[in-house]
Amino acid sequence: MKFRLAQIQMPVYKEIRLSVEYMERMAARAAAMGADVIALPEMFACPYAVGNFPVYAQEERGPLWQTCRETARRLHVYLSAGTIPERDPSGKIYNTAYVFDRQGNPIGKHRKMHLFDIAVEGGQHFQESATLSAGDQVTVFDTEFGRFGLCICYDFRFPELGRLMALEGAQVILVPAAFNMTTGPAHWELMFRSQAVNNQVFAVGTAPARDESGDYVSWGHSIVADPWGSVAAQMDEKAGIQVTDIDLDKVAAVREQLPLLKHRRTDIYVLKKNGF
Ligand SMILES: NC(=O)CCC(=O)C(=O)O
C-alpha cells in the first residue's frame, strides 16, 4: 500500500488569518501535486509562546477546527492539522492535534501528554505547563492506507509512547512538532531515526519554518524517517512543501526480516523491587 505525503513547513503569523490563508494556499498546492495526506506543524496558527496559548485558544469545533475540516473535505485529502491550542469546556487549555479524513470527518485527536518544560543551561528554556494542561491518551487512528499513530513534538522523546503506538498497530507515526535551535541540531534527526528504527515505522515530523525574529526559533527540518531508520526526506529551515511517496510494504518487510517486535522479552522487562 502506497500513499503520497506532503508536509507543509510554514511560517506562523501573529494574525491567525494570515497563517490560515497560507495553509490553505499550500494545502491546495500539495493536493494538486497528488498528496493523499497533508501534514501541518505544531501550533501552525499560534506563535509558539506560553503567553499566546490562552489568547489563541479555541474550542473544538471552533473556527480553526472548521477551517481544517473544510480544507480536508474540499481537497479530498487526509489532513493532519498540526496542533491548535484547544480550550475545553472546563477552561483548561491543551496542545491538541486533529486529523480529518477525505470527507472532513474527524478521525484522530491527540492532546500533548508530555508538556515541554525544559531549561537547558545557556540554551532553550520553555514551560508549557505554565498555561497548558497535559493529555493522557495514546492515539492511533485508521485510514484507507493502514493505521497511523499521532503525538506531538516533545511526546516523541518518550520511547514508551512510540512503542505503545507501534504495539497498537501504527505503521506511520505523525508528529506535528517545533524543535528549537538548541535541541534541534542535537536531537531532532536522532529522535526520528531512533523511534523509526526501534518501532519499525515511518516517523514523520512536521515543523514550522524558521523565523529568526520570533521569541522561539523553530529548527525546521521537517523529516520522514523510514522503518530501517534511514532519512527518507528532510527539509532545511525554509518554508516549503516536502512531498514523499511512502510505501507501507516496507514496514512489513523490515519487521519480517528483523523481527524486533516479536523478539521482545516482555517476561523479563519488569523491575524487581529489591533487585540489582
Ligand atoms: N514543542 C516542543 O515540544 C518542543 C520539543 C523540543 O524542542 C525538544 O527538544 O524536545
Automatic annotation (TrEMBL):
It comes from Catenibacillus scindens. This is Putative amidohydrolase. It comes from the Bacteria. Keywords: Hydrolase. PROSITE patterns: CN_HYDROLASE (PS50263). The keyword Lyase does not apply. Residues 1-248 form the CN hydrolase domain. GO terms for molecular function: omega-amidase activity. One of its GO terms (biological process) is glutamine metabolic process.
